[in-house]
Amino acid sequence: MAKPQFALKIAAALLAVCAAVWMVRHFSEPSYQGKLLSAWLDDGVRNGDMMWFGGESRGCDSQPAQAVLAVGPCGIPLLLSLLRGKDTALQKKLRDLAQKYKWIPIDRHNPDDLHAMACYGFWVLGPAGKSAVPQLIILLDDDDAGVRTLAAYVLSFIGPADTAALPALEKRLIALSQTISPGGDWQGEAHGVLRAMGEMGPRARSALPQISLLSQPPSGAIAWARAARIKISGEGLDSAIGPLKNPSAIADWRLARAVATDLGTNAAPAVALLVANLQSTNEEVQSSALFALAGIHAHPDLCLPAITDFLSSSNHLPRLPALLAICAFGRAATQWVSISQITPCLTDDDGLRRQAATNALRRLYPEAAAKLSVK
Predict the structure, then answer these.
(1) pLDDT in tens, 293-312
(2) What distance in Å separates the CA atoms of residue 163 and residue 200, rounded to the nearest whole number?
(3) Which one, 66, 143, 257, 265, has least CB within 10 Å?
(4) Does the model's pTM come out above 0.90?
(5) DSSP characters for 174-198?
């Protein structure tokens, strides 16, 4: 009899803890229109609002983004909590239990989900997330490389609003430069750090010597380092994007395309060259050029007419980046892209293309998406 009684006590204790956690979360977490901020963040991630990690196009015309903006800096404590999320054996067991018993009020998101939600929130807030900088500086020294990487990316979303993190970013860059290689887990963190420095512009000049070391072989972060250097120093784009004129020299072309993509709207002068690249018969050149145009999302009048042709192309490979590029322009793309051009892609035989088409329709034509019950 002792064992059943003990099991009942454990179950009762677990239920009490779950109820307490639910109450604390429900009554302390900010909400908008009667819905918790975390639920809005989850919607934003699932909707594909943050198409380009750290891109300037913040997708603020979506409902989840409007919710994040309405809550504003009051949501930063939650975002930081989500960013710090890590897994333990107990959390995994509780999550598995909650999946089995749906009535248990435990968050079923794994750390990757939580991190994505935090990044989405900070991405929408942009410079309005400035008050999080002191905590983000601390997270740059976290023992988890994933958390350090995300902290750097979030600092890039905040942009030039605060340079207090520059010394900590320089410290991380020096540590990372000691492990430079063509591959490795360090590259994601290097990208985040370089993006954050680049967004600070001329005020990050003290980091230029270290950035220059990473802009040469054998670094695996050459394109990102060159993009950061251009943003900080203000040097011209000609040498960086010149190779886009000659896609037959594929190695140089790839590097130039990567630099242009990472520069975002700063690479607007590259749009004409990339649109010309869409005429190439090389599928890699076509697809990569489309991805770059999405990252830059400038001159819609020049590139969108050429991009939309790929939606009905018999070649399936460029269709996904074409959908992503259209979505990156948001509702500004409706002048060149019709509902009838997107809807055939909703039944594409590839799941990723269907998802991209769904997100594009909801972003460009939310009313039509609602009528079609697009989810």
Answers:
(1) 999 989 999 999 999 999 98
(2) 7
(3) 143
(4) no
(5) HHHHTT--SSSTHHHHHHHHHHHHH
